[in-house]
Structures are given as structure tokens and as C-alpha cells.
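Job type: complex structure
Entries:
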Amino acid sequence: DAGVIQSPRHEVTEMGQEVTLRCKPISGHNSLFWYRQTMMRGLELLIYFNNNVPIDDSGMPEDRFSAKMPNASFSTLKIQPSEPRDSAVYFCASSFYLAEHSPLHFGNGTRLTVT
Amino acid sequence: GENVEQHPSTLSVQEGDSAVIKCTYSDSASNYFPWYKQELGKGPQLIIDIRSNVGEKKDQRIAVTLNKTAKHFSLHITETQPEDSAVYFCAASPLGGNQFYFGTGTSLTVIP
């Protein structure tokens, strides 16, 4: 299995531009998570989906952030307009959740720099 | 909600020594506790996990202990090697939920 695949690996953009991050979860997994990692705040959960349905988006910082999961094999996280404080590493993770916990499998992240 | 605290934030050990990282959690409903290792430029990778019906679990040089009464769990790495150098995260997940609450991470350096 190729694992969770994220693209791009690096993104540099100017303030005010739209940014789209992409994620392909592990085939067969039914839960997908978006995390943001910074030195100051560590790993923050932004949003997660079960069976393509958003369950908890309380971690999304503000309306500039949106996430979609149109099917079981693809998700996007969009920031519009981007701001310098959005600079961070964004991780996507997936798991197969039924009645008992299964661990998260993380992608290698997208390092976003907003200038 | 759940609050996970992790200590220490940095840890340096000599190669061959043991390393211990400790976490506490606040929600007694948490029943699943994974540990992740993050190497530079990569995402966190699961190294070991424990469920609340077990007090200890070992996998070669890595072990995790859980004290439900005190609400704390620990990662033990024995015979450390330079390739163990990384950032380690603990996490807690509540019964019936699919959320994971992460500690703030421990940067482990193993000195050759």
C-alpha cells in the first residue's frame, strides 16, 4: 500500500492567494483527518470525515478554511484568502474506524509558506 | 474535552541508555493510547499503542505502560540507538469516539 498521499509537498504563495491541499487516503479507510502542525501549537485537528461526511469541523480556524471529501479516495483543504499566519505543515491522516479504535496513518504533509 | 500533557519536551540520552516519556490525560473515557514517532520531513508514524484493558505492552525495545487510576501512560525505549532520534507524540482517544488528542511532543536525541 502506498500509504496516505498528499500533494503538493511544498507550497509557497503570496498573501491573499487561494491555496488547495490534496489528500488521497489509504484504500479501504473510512475516516479522514486534516491536522495542522506548528511549533507554537503542535498538532491541531482541523476537521475529520467519517464515510465522506464531515463530523467535526470545530478546529477549522475561520471561514477562510474549507474542506471537502467528494468521494472515499480524495479530499481537499482550501484556504482562501491565505495569510502569513497560515504558514504551517498540514497533515492528512486516515483510519478504518468501526466499533474499536484503529490508529491514524499520516501522510508526509504539505509545508505551506505564505509570504 | 480531553487534555493530554506530555513531558519532557526535550530529552537527550547516551546511546545504549533508556529513554522514558510520560503523558497524562484528563478524560476518564479515553481508552486508546497510541504513540507516534515523527522524523524530520515526515508525518508521524505509529510505533506502539495500548488499550485501557491492558497495563503494559512491549515490542522489542519499546514498551508502553498505562495507569488508568492515575490517568497517565509512558513510553519506554531501551538500548537507545541514534536512529531513535526523533519527535515522539502521545495521544488519547475516547471510547466511542474517533477523535485523537495529541500531546505536545518530545524531541529525543540519542548521542552516539
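Summary: Chain A has a mean pLDDT of 94. Chain A touches chain B through 22 residues (CB under 8 Å).
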